[in-house]
Amino acid sequence: MDLSTLHPHHKRSIVYIIIGFCLGLVFWFLLPQLFLKEPTTVRSESKIHAFHNPDSNLEKIRIRAFYVVPQNKTADAVSNWKEFLETSLAKAAEFHKIQFREKSALNYDIYPEPVILEKNNIFYDTKTTKYGNPKALIGIANELEKRVFRKDGDLYNENFSQRSASEYPVLGIIYEGVGAAGGVIYESELESTVEIAKKLGLPESVIYKVDVESADGFFILSRTFLTDAEYRFNGVTNFYHEFAHTFGLPDGYDLETGVSSTFDIMGEGRKKPIEIMYLDRKFTRAMGLVE
Ligand SMILES: [Zn+2]
């Protein structure tokens, strides 16, 4: 076709089409490069660490998990606990890997036998089991430290009890009783919880003294979350939620009212299956993930 015979309007539209086509080429040419190149360079900057704490490296985490049964609750103990625990750990590790773009690895060991605790449940549960039974977490962690992790302990196991310098060690306690709580263990030269609260700028009510050197974080979860029909959709979600407290993530909901302030696994998402859950970006960013 002879272009000069065309009406000027048509001429213009041909030009427009060409420009459009060229833009399209440039666009398609650049896009794959953007997608392929940028994430890799950006990812390499990521160095995962504890929440708001770059000194605490989280590139490798190891949960040492236990099933613990109070002296007077052995009749309630379940025989297939290990399968349930293994499944929860595997699903939690998969979720973790995706959330942190493979920049933080979650590994785990399961203590081979159930640990029958020295005391009855009332010793660990104390007067109140409110707020996820943190008192039981403290009492049981102290006992495991003495019995499993110290050389003179009756359950000491050399391979299991070693702490590796390159890993962030977490104590995971599945309790034959009530409980859902987790936290970070800080070493402090300060003696009282009042002083520590002041230094960290936290309310005194969330600080407890614990005698544990084998882990930097710990959590407790009732065995029922792993086995009971009531929790078949969000049992593992709760497992990861409590685990997430071990590297400092705060709750995304109000402990008194239950009203959520985030939609992720730390907030409203605690009620949903882990397969459709995520970690809020404000949390992963504050843990060093660059994306
Ligand atoms: Zn929580």
Explain the overall architecture.
The protein is an alpha/beta fold. The protein contains nine helices and eight strands. It has helices spanning 8-45, 81-99, 121-125, 134-149, 158-161, 193-200, 224-227, 235-245, 281-285; strands spanning 49-50, 53-57, 60-69, 105-110, 115-116, 168-175, 180-184, 217-222. The chain binds zinc ion (ZN).
Please sum up the structure shown.
By secondary structure, the chain is α/β, with parallel strands linked by helices. It has helices at 8-45, 81-99, 121-125, 134-149, 158-161, 193-200, 224-227, 235-245, 281-285; strands spanning 49-50, 53-57, 60-69, 105-110, 115-116, 168-175, 180-184, 217-222. The protein is 38% helix and 15% strand.
Sheet with the most strands, sense and barrel status? 6 strands, mixed
Bound compounds: zinc ion
- Here the CATH topology of the largest domain equals Collagenase (Catalytic Domain)
Count of DSSP E strands? 8
The CATH architecture term of the largest domain is 3-Layer(aba) Sandwich
Question: How do the strands and helices of this protein lay out in sequence?
Answer:
Blueprint: H1 8-45, E1 49-50, E2 53-57, E3 60-69, H2 81-99, E4 105-110, E5 115-116, H3 121-125, H4 134-149, H5 158-161, E6 168-175, E7 180-184, H6 193-200, E8 217-222, H7 224-227, H8 235-245, H9 281-285
Parallel strand pairs: 3-4, 3-5, 3-6, 6-8
Antiparallel strand pairs: 1-2, 7-8
The chain binds zinc ion.
